[in-house]
Amino acid sequence: MFENEVKQYLQKHGFGCFTPKAVLFDMDGVLYDSMPNHAVAWQQSMAQFDIHMTAADSYATEGARGVDTIVKFVKQQQGRDITLDEAQRMYDVKADIFHHMPTAPVFPGVREIMGKIKAAGMSICVVTGSGQRPLLQRLVDDFGEFIDERHIVSAYDVERGKPAPDPYLMGMRKTGCEHPWEAIVVENAPLGVAAGVAARCFTVAVNSGPLPDEVLANEGADIVLPDMVTFESNWEQLLAASRG
What we know:
Blueprint: H1 3-13, E1 22-25, H2 35-47, H3 55-60, H4 66-78, H5 84-99, H6 110-119, E2 123-127, H7 133-143, E3 152-153, H8 166-174, E4 183-187, H9 190-198, E5 202-206, H10 213-218, E6 223-225, H11 228-233, H12 235-242
Parallel strand pairs: 1-2, 1-4, 2-3, 4-5, 5-6
């Protein structure tokens, strides 16, 4: 299993080997079942600024820096350019609404797959477009056995968010990966998949949202899986495929 996907990945990029030593996880929609909460927070907060945003919009833009999403929507709907400072103030409203919502649970299979990755002697990094510091602290609280603050890439670490490769290139640096074929990206959103592919990493899409699998596959995902439990249960097969 996965031998063909690994072979196609190597051919696509012209690489001679696939020797993963780190897994780079997105946060929302991958580690946490948080996207429904984010969708509501986006809709309610942007309505206060006369910006129309649907639940589908929140999924389609998930993974990008929040301020970049706001700048884009203000330009599209109101025809004006705003500063990042103004976008940040609007994003703060969204963050406040989100933090008053029920705490999103960790997806089944997440801690188990992290345990397997650690047991394999590999590093783990979380790569998120979030700039909400309480969420970043929750990562350490929930997964401190596997990561620390040095192994988190957030909106504060890059100027260009997803779909640019920069967040995952930073994740590679934080885990000591010198080459793209040394990292596996795990994503759930189109922009995140595009970022992983742009960084030329082997990209696993876990489709935890409402989008068709084809949307993630069309962004270049090397594998599309239905959930983290499936990823965890097939982890050994992916490692075996990497060893040829």
